[in-house]
Amino acid sequence: MALKATIYKASLDVSDIDRNLYSDHSLTIARHPSETDERMMIRVLAFALNAPANNDQGLLEFGKDMWEPDEPCLVQKDLTGLLVHIIEVGQPDEKRITRLCSRAAKVTVYSFSSSTPTWWAGIASKLTRLRNLTVWQIPAEQSQKLAAMTQRSMSLQITLQDGALFIGDGTDSLEITLQRLHGQD
């Protein structure tokens, strides 16, 4: 018998002072049996960091990447169905990144493993020509602390100001230092 996804609920209160964006999001997250708390929370964080100011550019939605290998982690399509933004978490190989960059106007990757510097050093020179790609590193210690905030029902306050990212759940708080490895805003 196949294992089923575990459902998590997250209420996000996002205050992105840098973009003058204040929004609330109620998310239902299907966590694949093989997905860790850490990876799931990075997906939630990626959603919060990239949620559009309004729906005029389309909705940002979770993809089916854990069930369908060719699907992205998060995807934003415009109102005509065109891919605007693809978001991946982890360490996709250079062929996958190149393929995604050919499909969407913007591609963002969030890597959170302690092996990120080694992974990036191995593929960086092959991806420098991709102008629509941005790659971020989240320090492993910080992503593990974020994973410790996982609950089946979560209420997270996320504040981004002057490049500093703060996350709180009413009990604990955490500062995450995003390091840009490639790309620009």
Short description:
The protein is of the alpha/beta class.
Comma- or semicolon-separated keywords:
five-stranded mixed β-sheet, about 180 residues, Restrct_endonuc-II-like, alpha/beta, single chain, YaeQ_sf, Restriction endonuclease-like alpha-beta roll fold
Task: Provide the fold topology.
Blueprint: E1 6-16, E2 21-31, H1 37-50, E3 60-62, E4 74-77, E5 83-89, H2 94-103, E6 106-111, H3 116-127, E7 133-137, H4 140-147, E8 153-161, E9 164-168, E10 173-176, E11 179-182
Parallel strand pairs: 1-8, 5-6, 6-7
Antiparallel strand pairs: 1-2, 3-4, 4-5, 7-11, 8-9, 9-10
Helix pairs in contact: 1-4
Structural description of this entry:
InterPro entries: Restrct_endonuc-II-like, YaeQ, YaeQ_sf. This protein has 4 helices and 11 strands. By secondary structure, it is of the alpha/beta class. The chain has a single domain (6-182), classed as Restriction endonuclease-like alpha-beta roll domain (Restriction endonuclease-like alpha-beta roll fold, Roll). Strands 3-4-5-6-7-11 form a 6-stranded mixed beta sheet, sandwiched between helices. Helix 2 (94-103) links the parallel strand 5 (83-89) and strand 6 (106-111). The protein is globular and about 45 Å long. The chain starts with 5 loop residues before the first strand and ends with a strand.
Uncertain ranges? none
- Main sheet summary: 6 strands, mixed
Assign a percent range to the helix content.
10-25%
How many domains? The number is 1
Number of helices: 4
**Side-by-side strand order of the widest sheet:** 3-4-5-6-7-11
Secondary-structure-derived class: alpha/beta
Order of helices and strands: EEHEEEHEHEHEEEE
InterPro entries: Restrct_endonuc-II-like, YaeQ, YaeQ_sf
Pfam families: YaeQ (PF07152)
